[in-house]
Amino acid sequence: MAHSHSPGESLRDYFTEQLLGIMVCAGLGFVAVRMYTNGMLNFILAKPFHMPVLLGGLAVLIVIVLLRSIAVWREAGAFQAPAYDGPECSPQHVHDLTCNHGDSYPGQTDEDGEHTHSHDMTWMFVTMLILVIPITLFVIGMPNSSMARLAAIAEAKLDGRNSPAEESLGGPNLKEEAKGATVESEEKQSDGSSVRILKAASGLRFRETVPVSGEPKYALIAGTGSEMRFSDLNDAAFNEDKRKSLEGQTAIIEGRFKRLGDKEFTLFRQKRTCCAADSVTLKVRIVVPQALNNINPYDWVQAKGQIQFIKLPGGKAGAETYIPVIMVADITDVSTPQPTNEYED
Predict the structure, then answer these.
(1) How far is the CA of 284 from the CAs of 11, 83, 201, 243, in angstroms?
(2) In whole angstroms, how far apart are CA 231 and each of 37, 167, 202?
(3) What are the extents of the domains in the chain?
(4) To 10 degrees, the CA torsion angle through 146, 150, 153, 158?
(5) Contact at 8 Å (CB) between 202 and 172?
(6) Does CATH number 3.40.50.12780 belong to domain 226-344?
(7) Rounded distance, CA 340 to CA 345, Å?
(8) Tens-digit pLDDT profile for residues 224-282
């Protein structure tokens, strides 16, 4: 059954919808590009997905926004063009569907003359409000490091409830390690004492100071070190060849702090496959020579020390379980820098 509405009102609604759609798409494309350039994607996505976000944002800006803007501009020009003659047309006449020009006007059909109700724009505005949410979050600074920190801590707490309680294991006994260790160098001191640099079978390098009288003293040697990934250390714990190749090397590692004892704590970090929702907690045990009391739970901590893999007690018969441990030579090798990236991709 034929029905009618106001053509002028329909045109107004149509162009309003088109303009709002272009504006929202432009905002979404800009947000995607800007999040790539300012590093905000680090808080929500793994690095392999950063480039697709950038390319998607550029595609929205070029294909949807630019080309659609040109199309709407030309379409609006067609409605304004004085292409029809008639007694009611003047130089200032604006052509629309109310003109009595028959079917020759662009977009006009046989039913348009009897179509006189207006369209409800409510759902269009609701749709636009939903699409504006990501833009609004970006404007107020989300996602950010605080949000990523809270997510990482919540994930670590959940992982802690689902895992056996961690117990302090302590580090290797350097006096025992010195037995059968290789002597790399030896030097006599002016006071009659001697200093030897030893390398144990486990790969640990440490200093043995033998006084003229009394018991020898032992101290780990801090190397230069290089940044190490949590995943590399955790993977090596299950591979004997990798354990042997890494033991004794000096590693620098960063993560969130969880205390286990005065001289022992865990650093943890989240690993993502895609986004924060699929993250898992990776842990590395840290052992320090002196009590550490000036760091709060979940502070971001950097530690430098020699890598060891300690066998966990109470394993199943025939199965050996190792965990990575960083042996810190000096308390000054533990610091609290600003966080870089909560996640390890």
Answers:
(1) 64, 76, 22, 14
(2) 27, 21, 21
(3) 7-143, 174-220, 226-344
(4) -160
(5) yes
(6) no
(7) 13
(8) 888 999 999 999 999 989 998 999 899 999 999 998 888 899 999 888 888 767 777 88
